[in-house]
Write a structure and sequence with these properties.
The chain is an all-alpha fold. The chain is 73% helix and 0% strand. α9 runs antiparallel to α10. The longest helix is centred in the middle third of the chain and has 31 residues, at 280-310.
Length: 455
């Protein structure tokens, strides 16, 4: 976090710029830290495969169960009914419950959530499974990032953070062809069964190796009486933290990105298949290509941010403006592709619209982390996730309603994409203008080392 005493710009994550830890810093276990990183990347892969399965199976589910676009939209939106609330609640529990336990319980619940439709395939069981899945996945991104931060010192978090978020793109990249193959050859229920097995297997492995790391708290290294005289962890009123421009802008970029991502999971496969005439295999290839584009961006953003920092660029421009601009660019592409007739330009614009927003996901956590003490980081991440992902509750159902109410499905999709574009551009502009981590850190009276290491 930007220091109120130094003009040196904070790094990508608002961390210390020195590579060497101080004498009293916790020990960095490189091997274990990267093992945990690999597990968390796998966690995010499963997380996004769970989200994608309903969209990939949308057409056969609607055909078999004879449900309308608005009913399907309701089923898709039900995923977010408890998503934001659970992210908020678990965020506040993160200072009392270990990350090992939280992620273990989450993934076991993911497995259970896939079971109702295997017993009775109907609208109520689809909704019940999605509601339970959403409740268990609401805290997933923020709490897995929180767990990851416990294994790396502040100045080493850039690449692990990018890899954690890349698990989202990798999840769709891998799951789209695999789940589509299962749906085409063994029925859509087989995809749900496979995800239940994979989730349960990950939970069992995590329980054995997913212990909390040493950077979640400060361990006293001096005599006992010195530890007893150590200052209490810095804490600030959440109202002050939430009303900073940096946090509001981070939430805004998350909101714009989430609107596009929710449509990507719920309606993009159906749109490609029914409106653009693609067969299931081609749809899977297109979804994977968009995810690959997102993955490249995510793996590029960390060294790009580091390069900007090395040139003395502040967090406001290196991470704040970048996430806002990414959402704006995606919004402009979203507005353009429904009116593009040529196939290749239209697919490129679709990739920009649904793939570019991935850049905003790690950056909004990073900018928020720069203006909050570590003791409150998990809770604030939960709040950012809860408010930033609210579009998942609105966008899928609204899109289904617009398709059903329009004269043609194509015009309904166009209206939905234009509304999405407007939301994204406004959200991106707000992020660009309001995210100023260095300024807000000074106003809160925080030293960057307090925000990143105090607990």
């Amino acid at each position: 976090m930007a220091s109120q005493h130094s003009a040196t710009p904070a790094g990508l994550l608002g961390e210390e710029t020195a590579d060497a830890p101080s004498a009293d810093a916790p020990s960095y276990d490189r091997r274990r830290a990267w093992l945990v990183t690999a597990m968390i990347v796998a966690f995010m892969v499963i997380n996004f495969a769970d989200k994608a399965v309903l969209g990939l199976a949308a057409v056969p589910i609607m055909d078999e169960l004879n449900i309308s676009h608005s009913t399907y939209g309701l089923i898709s939106s039900s995923f977010s009914l408890l998503f934001s609330l659970s992210g908020l609640v678990v965020g506040f529990l993160s200072s009392r419950v270990s990350s090992r336990t939280m992620l273990f319980v989450m993934t076991l619940t993911w497995a259970v959530a896939q079971l109702p439709v295997l017993i009775v395939a109907a609208v109520p069981t689809l909704i019940a499974g999605r509601v339970l899945l959403g409740a268990a996945e609401g805290p997933a991104a923020s709490m897995s990032m929180h767990a990851l931060y416990k294994w790396f010192p502040p100045h080493r978090r850039g690449l692990p953070s990018a890899l954690q978020i890349s698990g989202a793109a990798l999840g769709t990249l891998v799951s789209a062809p695999v789940l589509t193959w299962l749906i085409a050859h063994h029925g859509w229920r087989s995809a749900y069964a496979a995800l239940a097995v994979v989730s349960a297997a990950w939970a069992l492995v995590w329980w054995h190796i997913g212990h909390d790391g040493p950077f979640g708290h400060v361990r006293p290294t001096g005599p006992r009486d010195s530890a007893e005289r150590a200052p209490a962890p810095v804490r600030l009123p959440y109202r002050r933290l939430l009303l900073t421009g940096t946090v509001l802008g981070s939430i805004s970029s998350a909101f714009g990105a989430s609107w596009a991502l929710s449509l990507s999971h719920s309606w993009l496969p159906a749109y490609l298949r029914t409106e653009l005439g693609m067969n299931p295999a081609t749809v899977a290839t297109a979804i994977s290509a968009i995810s690959a584009f997102s993955l490249v961006l995510l793996l590029t953003v960390s060294p790009f941010m580091d390069a900007l920092k090395a040139r003395g660029v502040t967090s406001r421009w290196s991470s704040g403006a970048v996430q806002g601009i990414a959402v704006c660019v995606a919004g402009c592409a979203m507005a353009a592709f429904p009116f593009t007739e040529s196939a290749l330009p239209r697919l490129l614009l679709i990739a920009l619209a649904f793939g570019t927003v991935a850049v905003a996901v790690p950056l909004h956590y990073m900018t928020a982390a720069e203006v909050v003490p570590a003791a409150q980081r998990g809770a604030l991440f939960g709040i950012v996730a809860a408010t930033g992902t609210l579009p998942g509750l609105i966008a899928p159902y609204l899109t289904g309603h617009l398709i059903e109410a329009a004269d043609t499905a194509a015009s309904g999709y166009t209206t939905a994409f234009l509304i999405t574009a407007l939301v994204m551009v406004l959200a991106g502009l707000l992020a660009v203008t309001s995210i100023r981590p260095e300024r807000d850190a000074r106003r809160l009276g925080l030293d960057r080392t307090v925000a990143d290491t105090a607990h």
